[in-house]
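One record is given unchanged without comment:
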Amino acid sequence: MNDLNTSISLESRTLNQAIGFRADEIHPGEPTRQARLKWVIVVNAELAPGRAANAAACVAAVTGSVVSGMLGDAVFDADGSEHAGLPWAGCSVLVASGEKLAAIRAKAETREDMHVADMPVLAQETRVYAEYLERMTERVSSEIAYAAVGLVGERKRVDRLVGGLSLLT
């Protein structure tokens, strides 16, 4: 466990880094439906609201850090206060059953042209990150329940995976 406490490999932080917008594709003045890539976060419908919000935020943090061109420019308000850039292409937050969520993730992870970020339920059951890392290595994929899964990919491909899901309300 000491190795887990002292370092997180760079490889784990750079998964799916090839997915993103090229500079010529960033058009914050156009409707989000015009963007080539679509970003969705699917949250487990069985989670309490606070856990659902936590899961979506964690998956969004991963996505924002590795998908290029996702965030728009910072903006200054009329008083001169700066506000961080937000995702210019938008993000839909949807809900699905735990089974459906696992199926979506399983299909998405087979695609090299799709960014997949997930948050296993186990992450919300541990208070120490190293404990989470260790406990995950003891699980096979089919045993992992998900709190949320985020996807970024070609619009039609993402739509095929999440079509029919409802927005989180």
About this structure: Confidence is low (pLDDT under 50) at residues 4-16. The helical segments are 2-6, 10-13, 49-66, 98-108, 122-125, 129-137, 155-162. The longest helix spans residues 49-66. The first strand starts at residue 37 and ends at 44.
